[in-house]
Every structure is written in C-alpha cells, then in structure tokens.
Design goal:
alpha/beta, Aconitase, domain 3, two-stranded parallel sheet, 6 helices, 4 iron, 4 sulfur cluster binding, 3-isopropylmalate dehydratase
Length: 176
C-alpha cells in the first residue's frame, strides 16, 4: 500500500508468507533467522536453483468465485505438497482478472501448497495499483519504470518443470 514493493524486485523476509509480494511481479520468499542475519550483513543470499511451476487458470471464473476459491482449487489439484521446491507463476485469464488484493491472496497461499514463492507477471492492474503510492516512482520515472516492468513477462516458449492447468468455470466455492 506504500509502493515499496515494485515489479522485478527480489524480496526476502523472515516470514513464510513473504510470497504475498509476488502479486506485484516480485520474487519474494521467506527465509530463516540465520539467513536474515546473513542478508542484513552482506545483502546477499545463496540459493540453489528452484524448480519452476506454471499454474494456468484458463477462462473466466463464475461470479462470486474469489481468489481464495481459485487457490484452494489449485491446492486441491496439486496437493498440499505439490509445489514443494518450486517457484510458481500464476497465469491465465482468470488470474489476470483478479484485483491486486486477489493476487496477493493467491501468492500468499502458494506457501500452503509447499511452494517457495508464487508470482503474477506485472500488468496494467499492477501498474494502476502502484501508481501514486508514497514510495512509487513519480512522473517520467514512473513511465520509465512501467516500460521496464512490461518486459517482466515469461518468455514465449519458456519451459517449466511442472505445468498445472485448471478451467476457471469448473471452480466452485470452497469451504474453509
């Protein structure tokens, strides 16, 4: 809400739900206390290559279906450990239709499927949300930032270690 998290950033924090920031197109993940100390001392963090997972939710969700319904349907399909060791990219029409708050819910809940991080590529919804925030770039700097942020999309033909596809119209309200 302050515009501190921006697309393309790498964010680590001593909280497992740091992945929420992935809604902005940032790579964000939780780390342990020893790793926090290392980051604060060196501004670096050694990480092994994570596996990649693409979760595409095709089509439009029915009225009343929320981001939480979508992510619970995803977890129902992958299992609670289905994302273990992965960085997950959420994509597809149903994901693009979500508000920033919905995207934050989705990325936050990526941890509940065992993923290291979840993210959504930045788009006009992201740019409109960030624009005018206290710490967001202003004026020409914002325009230049958006031009760069638009490049933060998955390459055409990119390969993923795991691909999961759901049809949005098949997602029903979930009980939580």
């Amino acid at each position: 809400e302050q515009g501190v998290t921006l697309p393309g950033m790498t964010i680590v924090c001593g909280d497992s739900h740091t992945a929420t920031h992935g809604a902005f197109g940032a790579l964000a993940f939780g780390i342990g206390t020893s790793e926090v100390e290392h980051v604060l001392a060196t501004q670096t963090l050694k990480q092994g290559r994570a596996k990649t997972m693409k979760i595409e939710v095709q089509g439009k969700a029915a009225p009343g279906i929320t981001a939480k319904d979508i992510v619970l349907a995803i977890i129902g399909k992958t299992g609670s450990a289905g994302g273990t060791g992965h960085v997950v990219e959420f994509c597809g029409e149903a994901i693009r239709d979500l508000s920033m708050e919905g995207r934050m819910t989705l990325c936050n809940m990526a941890i509940e499927m065992g993923a290291k991080a979840g993210l959504v590529a930045p788009d006009e919804t992201t740019f409109n949300y960030v624009k005018g925030r206290l710490h967001a770039p202003k004026g020409k700097d914002f325009d230049d930032a958006v031009a760069y942020w638009k490049t933060l999309q998955t390459d055409e033909g990119a390969t993923f270690d795991t691909v999961v596809t759901l049809q949005a119209e098949e997602i029903s309200p979930q009980v939580t």
